[in-house]
Specification:
By secondary structure, this protein is mainly alpha-helical. The chain has one domain (about 5-50). It has helices spanning about 5-15, 30-35, 40-50.
Length: about 60
């Protein structure tokens, strides 16, 4: 998925009232997970601009 398409998806996701900061099984957030990837800079920016936060206690 391109960063532009990801940005559109995240916008729709948030507009539908979905929780962009939902905790994963290890208490990390989706932003934590995405930021682990080498080429994630644009995707991390999209998430942060949509209000995503990193967990205080990553996995």
């Amino acid at each position: 998925m391109t960063a532009a398409l990801f940005a559109r998806f995240i916008l729709l996701y948030v507009e539908k009232g979905k929780d962009i900061n939902v905790k994963l099984e290890d208490n990390s957030t989706f932003l934590d997970l995405v930021s682990e990837h080498r080429k994630s800079t644009a995707y991390v920016t999209v998430l942060e601009e949509a209000g995503a936060v990193r967990s205080k206690h990553p996995g």
